[in-house]
Amino acid sequence: MPLKTLLPRSLAALLAVLAAAFSLACTRAQSERPANELGRIPILMYHSVGGEAEFAGGPLFDIHGLNIAPATLRRQLQGMYDAGWYPVNMRDLLSPRFFVPKGKTPVVLTFDDARPSQYRTLPGGKIDPNCAVGILEAFHRTHPDWPRRATFYVLPESSYNGVPFDQDGQETSKLRFLARSGYELANHTTSHRSLADLPPRTLRWEMAYSTRYFRRQVPGLVMQTMALPYGIAPRDPAHWHDLLRGMQGGTRYRHRCILLASGGPAFAPADSRFDLSRIPRIVSAPGEIEHWFTVPASLYVSDGSPNTITVPRSLAGQVDRRHLDGAKFVVY
Ligand SMILES: [Zn+2]
Q1: Chain-wide mean pLDDT for the chain?
Q2: Structural domain count, the chain
Q3: What pLDDT is stored for residue 116 in this prediction?
Q4: Are 152 and 296 part of one and the same domain?
Q5: How many A from CA of 227 to the centre of ligand 1?
Q6: Is 15 found in the same domain as 132?
Q7: What pLDDT is stored for residue 159 in this prediction?
């Protein structure tokens, strides 16, 4: 029997008022958090959600963060929301002038490999409510101030991936839905092999084939960011520029940053330690993300304006003034 029917009506009403007051107090507390636009930014790395039996012996939920149970993702989203986090896409962080409401902490949710459990439709065409996109869409519906943002590091058709998200014939409509709904599609190479020792011309093919494939699927698409398979970069740093920009088979590509597969929260874009060629991520194993709910003082807190970069005096020396992108620097 629902709790509500067990309570006298006046008590239920009182509880509702208290809950509303608590929620308002939380919102107020967040908007009163002092701005710190040099705090760290969590970039979360997801793979499967309620995954396919991709491990021998069946799915292993929540062990290493490679296959998160749907309930875990829902709980993590609610935890982020309650902690005052606010989703942005990876491409938004290429400049310090991105928008996040006052008092909020930006978070990037990334999903690698275009795995089946990230975006599955049911017979009849509805999005499976237990796949990652279904969970993100439902969370946005019940929390309209949580926008539809997440970055999908996708793979084209390959030996590793039949088609992106693995439902043959549906890949085009899925990719277009993601792009027009506000999500980011970004490069995760073509074949998902280790990039450690590939010659430059193969690195360029890895980047350009994928770019060509996704541009065909989503006309006008520009993939601005890339994530390393397994987090492994070319051993020779001189080859990193082949991941960022180049031309192959008549296709030109330009990625403005490279994401790793571990390393904790990222530096803010205005921080002199922010390095576009090595942006760390946080694995989504339970506890790894939740830890950052408990240390809010270390995280980025927005001043609400993309035109000013506001930092406490103690951190002012850490700002890279060359990368303010025209924003005004404010110290308090
Ligand atoms: Zn991957």
Answers
A1: 90
A2: 2
A3: 92
A4: yes
A5: 8
A6: no
A7: 73
> Are 27 and 53 in the same domain?
no
Q: Which two tokens stand for residue 304?
A: 């609400």
Q: Is residue 51 very low, low, confident or very high in pLDDT (cuts 50, 70, 90)?
A: confident
Same domain, 148 and 17: no
Residue 115 CA to ligand 1 centre (angstroms):
9
d(CA 13, CA 259): 49
Gap between the Cα atoms of 3 and 211, Å rounded = 54
Decide if 154 contacts 211 (C-beta within 8 A).
no
* 173-199 mean pLDDT: 97
Cα 51 to ligand 1 centre (Å): 15
CA-CA distance, 30 to 12, in Å (whole number)? 27
Which one is predicted more confidently, 127 or 61? 127
Quick check: 158 pLDDT over 70?
Answer: yes
Question: What pLDDT was estimated at residue 6?
Answer: 45
Residue 25: which region, alpha, beta or left (left: phi > 0; alpha: psi -120 to 50)?
alpha
DSSP 182: T
Report pTM: 0.90
Q: Are residues 153 and 272 in the same domain?
A: yes
Q: From 195, 121, 119, 122, select the one nearest 152 (Cα to Cα).
A: 119
Taking the centre of ligand 1 as the mean of its atom positions, its distance from the CA of residue 65, in whole angstroms, is: 13
Residue range 52-69: average pLDDT? Answer: 72
The Å distance, Cα 113 to ligand 1 centre, comes to: 5
Token pair for 311: 């930092």
Question: What is the domain range of residue 22?
Answer: 1-32
- Among 91, 63, 71, 90, which Cα is nearest to 284's? 63
Separation CA 329–CA 309 (nearest Å): 5
Decide if pLDDT at 89 tops 70. Answer: yes
